Amino acid sequence: MYDPHTDTWEQLPHMIIPRSGSAAAVLHGLIYIIGGWHASTENTNKVEKFDPRTKNWETVASMFERRYRPGVAVVDGKLYILGGEDGWEHFHDTIECYNPDTNTWSQVGEMLTGRSWLSCAPLRVSRERKNRKNKRKYMFDK
What we know:
InterPro entries: Kelch-typ_b-propeller, Kelch_1. The protein is mainly β.
């Protein structure tokens, strides 16, 4: 782990499940590692979190689907995991949401097409916008 105040690196404990192709996100000061491919040559639905204060890894609830190279975003205190793949040419179009308060995942939507190796970023869009010419407000479709 890098400490920018001291410009030093520190070796951390190994994850519970070694993996590659996972998604990573920070939520409430904890680092989550989600999905990926592990040494037993299969994709995983396993999720771990790391607490930088205690330097401990802990498993949390597993996702519904195994995902290699998914996208992840943090919105309103929850993790959203999108896409990823489960085997060659099987790309997920589903979106799952993790609630850390209840340690549960839920299916919350689908993308138009399945995809993998994607990046995600949260974006807030106002449901209203003003037409600059005539100052009228228009509501976006839900």
